[in-house]
Design a protein that fits this description.
Organism: Clostridium collagenovorans DSM 3089
Bound molecules: flavin-adenine dinucleotide
Largest sheet: 8 strands, mixed
Protein name: L-2-hydroxyglutarate oxidase LhgO
InterPro entries: BFD-like_2Fe2S-bd_dom, BFD-like_2Fe2S-bd_dom_sf, FAD-dep_OxRdtase, FAD/NAD-bd_sf, G3P_Oxidase/Oxidoreductase
CATH topology of the largest domain: FAD/NAD(P)-binding domain
Strand content: 15-25%
Shape: globular
Structural class: alpha+beta
Pfam families: DAO, Fer2_BFD
Distance between the termini: 56 Å
């Protein structure tokens, strides 16, 4: 067999499983069709670490709760900012008040759940900007915010350092059953392995008999508006506003002082309707505060880990639930236990559970800046003046384990081009640095994927000047 374990898909879930399994003496590869891991999540996400609060417990709530509890240690280990800011869940009507009471009753006596029903005065005390508009709410201390993209990079980089083979730009075409294992066919190779962990949405592989992710009745749209750091609604916590019709509005403060607004609906809403609807909770949105709009489908299916074929060595993870970021540490541990149940392997003695250090110039003191510039003068050259990102950080993003190979990859790792000018000042320089560091022609640099070249072609080719 080429590998003990093949992980299909390099999203957050695939990377978290790669990280967890890289602690063992296993020969592992991860296959991802894109140029980078966790490509989508940084742009479409509310970044909430949920607590697993529901009226009844199911797999999804248990995975959320466990994931929530494991998050501090992981964030610390990977040097990923994680703010346990807490959350207020507001009831807009009597029916929702009753629902919040049931959630409270289900969770109040459980260890590790910090929930409390609060009244109008208590709401105003915690969040004065809510201006006493709500009679009751559920307050939960455990909810927090984390950058899912940085979390994915943490998982991926540590797995890579511990010898997980990342096969990027390689698309899985089929999975076939063979004696004592599988053959995974990609657009470039055919690999054999004992175990397949499939985190891709593909449902048409020869041997995937698992049920479709969910039916249409379980789907809903998440309409997201992202507001820059110049907008401030004054909320310190994640605020949910719920009503009996199932409407849900969320205001979420990110770790970068931005605000993410979300409205769930049965339709993909036009931008002006998103603004109109979230304004109930996120008022005074002006055009110059808006970074972007996104819409994505959720699927609140209960089954996240389908291990019905684990005896044959096949596990499928369904990644459409709105709290998968939160669940990743728990999903990874559960899959690990599944694998350890069927493969004989031992923990790696030389496992390195640490991410290579990196520097954020705009968060350093002047003394620290001088010190780092003394060691590497590229940290003395500002490329993105809006966010104060240096050439040193961009070069490190490219050279580090599982480094960036696309402009979006550099943006995600450093924050460059995310400032007020959205890259109009620094974009060209970032392209030049990536070309120089990867020894490529500028014509071959891509924004995000194979079909996203920055420069299509030269206007004229000259034989001589
Ligand atoms: C709008 C929105 C907001 C969210 N907010 C939150 C939140 O606040 N908190 C929270 O906990 N969770 C949140 N989530 C959930 C979470 O972000 C996602 O569900 C999660 O990132 C999914 O990760 P994944 O690895 O399962 O899937 P993906 O990220 O989709 O990864 C699958 C990977 O497989 C690759 N792939 C696909 N097909 C192939 C193939 N044939 N061959 C090789 N590779 C392939 C893809 O390129 C992709 O990289 C949110 C989700 C959405 C949509």
């Amino acid at each position: 067999m080429d590998y003990d374990v093949l992980i299909l898909g390099g999203g957050l879930v695939g990377c978290s499983i790669a990280y967890e399994l890289s602690k063992y003496n296993l020969n592992i590869a991860l296959i991802e069709k894109d140029y980078d891991i966790a490509d989508d999540i940084s742009i479409i996400n509310t970044e909430i670490v949920y607590a697993g609060l529901e009226i009844k417990d199911n797999e999804a709530t248990l995975l959320q709760h466990k994931g929530n509890q494991l998050m501090d240690e992981l964030a610390n280990k990977f040097n990923v900012p994680f703010k346990r800011c807490g959350s207020i869940i507001l009831a807009e009507d009597k029916e929702t008040e009753d629902k919040l009471k049931s959630i409270y009753e289900n969770n109040k006596d459980k260890e590790g759940y910090n929930v409390k029903l609060i009244n109008r005065d208590e709401i105003s005390k915690l969040e004065p900007e809510l201006r006493g508009l709500y009679n009751s709410a559920l307050y939960c201390e455990d909810i927090g915010v984390i950058s899912p993209c940085e979390l994915a990079l943490g998982y991926g980089e540590v797995a890579f350092q511990n010898n997980v083979n990342f096969k990027l730009e390689e698309e899985v075409i089929d999975i076939e059953n063979i004696a004592k294992g599988f053959r995974v066919v990609t657009n470039k190779n055919r690999f054999t392995c004992k175990i397949v962990i499939n985190t891709t949405p593909g449902e048409n592989y020869s041997m995937d008999f698992s049920q479709p992710c969910c039916d249409n009745t379980e789907k809903e749209y998440a309409n997201i508006i992202s507001l820059n750091k110049y907008y401030n609604n004054g909320y310190k916590r994640v605020i949910f506003s719920l009503n009996k019709d199932g409407d849900k509005i969320i205001s979420c403060p990110t770790n970068k002082d931005e605000t993410i607004g979300l409205i769930c609906s049965n339709d993909n809403l036009k931008n002006h309707l998103v603004i109109e609807k979230v304004s109930k909770l996120i008022p005074d949105i002006k055009a110059n505060y808006i970074n972007s709009f996104f819409t994505s489908e959720f699927c609140k299916n209960d089954i996240i880990i389908d291990d019905s074929q684990i005896k044959d060595g096949y596990v499928k993870i369904r990644g459409k639930h709105p709290a998968i970021v939160t669940m990743t540490p728990a999903i990874a541990e559960k899959v690990r236990d599944n694998i350890l149940g069927i493969l004989k392997c031992k923990p790696k003695k030389e496992f390195l559970d640490k991410r290579r250090e990196y520097y954020k110039f705009n968060e350093m003191s002047n003394e620290e800046r001088n010190e780092i510039i003394r060691l590497n003068n590229r940290y003395g050259k500002i490329v993105c003046s809006c966010e104060r990102i240096t050439e040193g950080e961009i070069v490190d993003a490219i050279r580090r384990p599982l480094g960036a190979r696309t402009i979006e990859g550099i943006k995600r790792r450093t924050g460059v081009c995310f400032g007020r000018c959205q890259g109009s000042q620094c974009f060209n320089e970032v392209v030049s640095i990536l070309a120089r560091e990867t020894n490529k022609s500028i014509n071959d640099i891509v924004k995000d994927s194979k079909n996203s070249k920055i420069i299509l072609k030269r206007i004229k080719e000259f034989d001589e000047m």
